[in-house]
Specification:
mainly alpha; Tetracycline Repressor, domain 2; HTH_TetR; DNA binding
Amino acid sequence: MSGGRKKDFDSEVALQSAMHVFWEKGYIGASLSNLTERMGINKPSLYNTFGNKEALFIQATKLYCDNKINSLSALLADKTIPLKQRLKNYMMSVLSVQCESEPAKGCYVVQCQSEVASGEIPNEASQLLMHAGEAVKDLLISTLSDDQESKALGLDKEAKQKALCLSATLRGTATLARSGYSKDELEYVIDHSLKGIGLDENAKDSV
């Protein structure tokens, strides 16, 4: 007898589908029926391939972070581009994810983090969400602390506070994007936030 039945589905495609279910409904709102229907598999296949709901959620969250958050960090690294434009490029790319991703909109992490206080999300999953939620702020802190242009403008002296302002802006645009606001409408919010931390007349835009 063979060593087991061969999978008749693509696990990567199924995981992408699960990610979008959690993105739309959150951890608590996503039922196993929602998940298996969108993934195109049955419950035994879900358990055999991904584990339980929490294990599937952790894998889906890591997939979102790798594809939608971590991959954008390179936009802040090109020192040939002025700081203000690098920050805007990064924030607008995050905004594109929030506004243009279908079928879900907004931010997966923000959507699911809102449920953490309920106590219904298992601890490991909650910790992963908290870490993911801090990743954007930490990246911005690092940029504002270490960048030579930021230092020349004195932004590094309040890097944590200014990074918090920018990350709070992106959390706000995530909620607005989920409510139907467009990328063009929310670009003003990004511009105003950058102006608010001191990147306005004193910072050059790229040509």
